Amino acid sequence: VTAEKGGFAHFMLKEIHEQPKAYRDTMLGRIDESGRRIILPDLHLTEDKIRSINNVHVVACGTAYHAGLVGGAVIERLVRIPVMYDVASEYRYRSPLITPETLVIVVSQSGETADTLAALREAQANGAHVLAITNVVGSSIARDADDVINTLAGPEIAVASTKAYTSQLIAFYLFSLYLAQVRGTQTADEIAHIIAAMHALPEQVESMLANVDAIKAYAEHIAKHKDLFFIGRGLDYAVAMEGSLKLKEISYIHSEAYAAGELKHGTLALIEEGIPVIALATQESVLEKTVSNIKEVKARGADVLALTYEEHVAGLLKSVDQAFAIPKTLSILAPALSVVPLQLLAYYASLARGNDVDKPRNLAKSVTVE
Ligand code: G6P
């Protein structure tokens, strides 16, 4: 059994460590040799069709939905098309406004999630083109979608999704750049610049995985708590949601992810002496704003850990109790790095609590019934 796990104690840890390979495999063959263009030769979506899209819906469940929150925001930023997000179980019942100019992107590791499959059918019935981002070739969602971008994460066994999520981010980066290339919303140099930063991601993840002692110690501290909060703005908020979900799924510690600026509208009332708050602070355009929110929770006694770039650690340490650095990257790519310590945090917290890491209570890897 340990052989199956490649020497790791759990599938989840093995899969966390497989992320650099999953990033490379998902990029392979989809970037041309000059490193300046995206090539997605299997897409049926024509360039004319791409130019006619006037809105995008991103629909998924669970962790795949969280990847969609990042991916949709990246599309908006690079391509300037309005994007709407929905969990599949809501989308299918609220008669969403779908037209033939809507591109619907469904995201699913397994390709078998019942709600996501139903959402895909609803979208197609209303004339939308459906692109699926899935990890299982030949799955129901892959078969029924009009287009598929396969993530090449390899089989994911642990119920808590890790490498599938980050591979979904890579697929979204590639697709967003492709749309930007076709619609001319980014220059060739801007696209090349982002591609270069993407190529650096696998090694950057490797460097984080070689250095887990601090996060492990922090997880052991967190394991004694009942509640905690994740806060962030923009893409940091999207990653906060994934960090919170991961922790809930396998450690059973209650946590909430909050948009940092929204705390003062209610959740701040829950902040009391010693409560752990994990503040993601990688989005530099809103860093100052995030720091003000950190000060709000600090003033109420929170025990704050910040996740940021090395260059901001010293500054942030004036307002937080601890700070962990992640390698430097572009703001849109930060989720592909900042989520890794949060995956490790959930893993080690679950371990410290003696839980069944790979098979958490009440959850299934793939939910094929409604
Ligand atoms: C289940 C799994 C989650 C997963 C979600 C969506 O709830 O436990 O890890 O994110 O389904 O699964 P999918 O296969 O569609 O990505």
TrEMBL record:
Which GO biological process annotations does it have?
carbohydrate metabolic process; fructose 6-phosphate metabolic process; protein N-linked glycosylation; UDP-N-acetylglucosamine metabolic process
Domain SIS intervals: 46-185, 218-360
Q: Which reaction does it catalyse?
A: D-fructose 6-phosphate + L-glutamine = D-glucosamine 6-phosphate + L-glutamate
Please state what class of enzyme this protein is: transferase
Q: Which domain of life is it from?
A: Bacteria
What keywords appear on the UniProt entry?
Aminotransferase, Cytoplasm, Glutamine amidotransferase, Repeat, Transferase
Q: List GO molecular-function terms, semicolon-separated.
A: carbohydrate derivative binding; glutamine-fructose-6-phosphate transaminase (isomerizing) activity
Enzyme Commission number, as recorded: 2.6.1.16
State where the protein is found: Cytoplasm
Q: Which residues form the active site?
A: 365
Q: Name one GO cellular component term.
A: cytosol
Q: What is the role of this chain?
A: Catalyzes the first step in hexosamine metabolism, converting fructose-6P into glucosamine-6P using glutamine as a nitrogen source.
How is the quaternary structure described? Answer: Homodimer.
Q: What is this protein called?
A: Glutamine--fructose-6-phosphate aminotransferase [isomerizing]
Q: Which organism is it from?
A: Paenibacillus lutimineralis
Q: Which gene encodes it?
A: glmS
Shown chain mapped onto the complete sequence:
241 to 610 of 610
